[in-house]
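Team,

Forwarding the record for the chain on the shared tracking sheet. I've put the sequence and predicted structure together so nobody has to dig through attachments.
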Amino acid sequence: MTTPESTGSRSPADASGPPPPGRDIAEILRGQYDTGRTRPLSWRLAQLDGLKRMVREREEEILAALAIDVGKPHFEGYAAEVAYVAKDIAHAQRHLASWLKPRQVKTPLMTQPGKSRIVPEPLGVVLIIAPWNYPFGLSMSPLVGALAAGNCAVVKPSEIAPETSALIASRLPDYVDDCCVKVVEGGVPETTDLLAQRWDHIFYTGNGQVGRIVMTAAAKHLTPVTLELGGKSPCIIDSDANLTVAARRIAWGKWTNAGQTCVAPDYVLVHRDVHDALLDELAATVRRFWGDDPQRSPDFGRIVNTRHHQRLMKLMDSGDVFLGGHSDEADRYIAPTILVNVAPDSPVMRDEIFGPILPVLQVGDLDEAIVFVNRRPKPLALYLFAQDEQVHQQVIARTSSGGMTINHAWLHLTVRDLPFGGIGESGMGCYHGQASFDTFSHRKSVLVQSTRLDPPLLYPPYGGTKEKLLKHLL
């Protein structure tokens, strides 16, 4: 629990505990925000320190909840959620003082004598709606940015990951200022109620269908939004790619969390000259990673629920099964699966797969791959495996995606000085590192002028001399 000294004293009618019936939680928090308690650097650092202690002290509880909710292996839960959030916090703590400093900019002659600067200020009261696939990490990582920027926040964890949601709801208030940070559990009705309220920013991670609902609700109050969506992230394999390395990295990127990752390679476009060799390397890699029976491996995850399991199994008919295809609905298991002879308009190629099924399609050359990608909605991520740097530059210049990693998968999102976000149907806005601070801040423009001089140029009466001088100055 944060101390009164670190968070500000509480009034008798403070905002701790659940909001009283009929009261708007956003307005309750706005009352706290308006006191100014969230603005000092000391308050922000205290919240980050509280989050850091929560991650450290509750690590095993978090990993246990992730295993129950999404069948996440211990290593994956630690690396992709616990350690990832800890690194986010440490990065923000290290740089927050410099992010807060006003930035001086040049003041033109017309506005002299004066000084101009950009001052970051909190947005106010923000709503964070988290997904189920990384239910702890994608609740806490945006919260790091919101608190670093000095906001009050409501976190809405996913009801599809109930153990993690309950853990966040019960434990988070012990580590942060619970007058200014709230957790709201529940499903569609609770989320609908939250979206009806007036927020200063909404940060949503999930799918495009719900993203449109969020954006529609936000428009009623002209609330800005960050939408971290997804899409079909392509993986292009050129003829000169190191296939052994490519297979390991694609397999890791695709089948981590049983493929339930927004930046997982969704499909592969491989040069026909190396098509068969890549398939053989992928099959060998799957056996090395998870054995002959991945269902028995402690390192292979599970599908989140029966509904998603059934949805994914319907996609198996979109091509011929080269590898995998096995499933166990009672265990929420689907084997690492590769489909070949997949038609570009087949069901598996229409929407984001979000599961352990990997379509592999042949292309004749790099141009064909680029055209294929560009005729589809802009993806959240794009991957390229090629040795030729000119090929790298071609794909960078001729495609559009939220982010890109060359000769690996995912890793661009681990570089905290790289903004992470989508474009077009894969999302809008970005976060990570300073981009998180900026997302939850307003960059206020401030001009301070001296009263020692007051040139008459701008004041009437006007005349030819003033007009000539104005043209010269502008």
